[in-house]
Specification:
44% helix, alpha/beta, 8 strands, TIM Barrel
Length: 295
């Protein structure tokens, strides 16, 4: 059977197929790589091995794997080659591949980013990317076109997980609403013509798990958006507080955890790092699924 071409439908299909609503993050920071990986060779080779083995370890437990572009870009051209390989390996293994690059620019530049990240055969082809919204709808429109044409998706940063997000995102406008509400409304409008068969748009939203009180209010503003929910684990977010992101079918949310899964070996003495990551992913998956039954 051919997989649905619509991004949100493909994500929903994957979630239901593996009964998982988690995205495992691959942020290969050199200071956290397992000793045996570091000992295997120079840094590019170590990052390549780490990512490939992490994908293999968690693929069966994850709906998606999210790659933080910065940890590859810092390695220069060889890092881009490794990133391209990891994105490809993820898509071959079954999870959807999300490139966390948070791009934003004027329209013609964003079209070039489409050619880099989401068009079929793109050098760093992913299923979806993250975008920042502060150039307005013009900066999102090219990805909206690409999503419609190629079955890809994007997640707009609406309410990020970092503490200083309030410096800009919670500033009150003249009508009393915070800036992130305006961004939510813009995201919903941009994604309105991208809704798939499951009722969700290919234009999703990043909503920090560190602000659970915002999840319910943003679900009211963005009923058609898949929420990518980072910040669980190392940043202090709790998966059990995110029930408002999900609908009755267990769709609508994707809980993202990076360090707490990929580097779980640091907290599990004597456990092989790959098995530690697999166990952490399995535990997070179960925690999120238990949240659904009590939401």
């Amino acid at each position: 059977m051919t997989a649905p071409s619509h991004f949100a439908d493909r994500l929903a299909e994957r979630i239901l197929a593996v009964d998982s609503r988690i995205s495992v993050g691959c942020d290969p920071a050199p200071e956290h790589l397992p000793p045996e990986v570091k000992a295997a060779g120079e840094e590019v080779a170590a990052v390549d091995r780490f990512g490939a083995e992490l994908i293999e370890a968690v693929a069966a437990e994850a709906a998606a794997i999210k790659f933080q572009a910065a940890f590859y870009e810092r390695l220069g051209p060889p890092g881009y080659e490794v990133l391209a390989r990891h994105l490809r390996l993820t898509r071959e293994a079954g999870p959807l591949a999300i490139l966390d690059c948070k791009r934003s620019d004027v329209g013609h530049t964003m079209r070039a980013y489409c050619e880099a990240y989401v068009n079929p055969g793109a050098p760093l082809e992913a299923d979806a990317v993250t975008l920042t919204p502060y150039l307005g709808a013009d900066g999102l429109a090219p990805f909206s076109v690409c999503a419609a044409e190629h079955g890809k998706g994007f997640f707009v940063v609406v309410k990020s997980s970092n503490p200083s997000a309030a410096d800009v995102q919670e500033v009150r406008m003249e009508d009393g609403e915070p800036v992130y509400h305006r961004v939510a409304q813009m995201t919903a409008a941009v994604g309105r013509h991208l809704v798939g068969a499951r009722g969700y748009s290919a234009a999703g939203a990043v909503v920090g798990a560190t602000f659970p009180e915002a999840v319910a209010e943003l679900r009211e503003l963005m009923p058609e958006q898949f929420f990518l929910l980072p910040g669980v684990g190392a940043q202090g977010g709790e998966a059990g507080a995110l029930g408002a992101a999900f609908d009755a079918d267990g769709l609508g949310g994707l809980v993202a955890a990076s360090r707490s899964v990929a580097f779980a070996w640091e907290q599990r003495e004597g456990v092989d790092w790959r098995e530690a990551a697999r166990e952490a992913a399995r535990e997070l998956k179960a925690t999120v699924n238990a949240t659904l039954s009590t939401a």
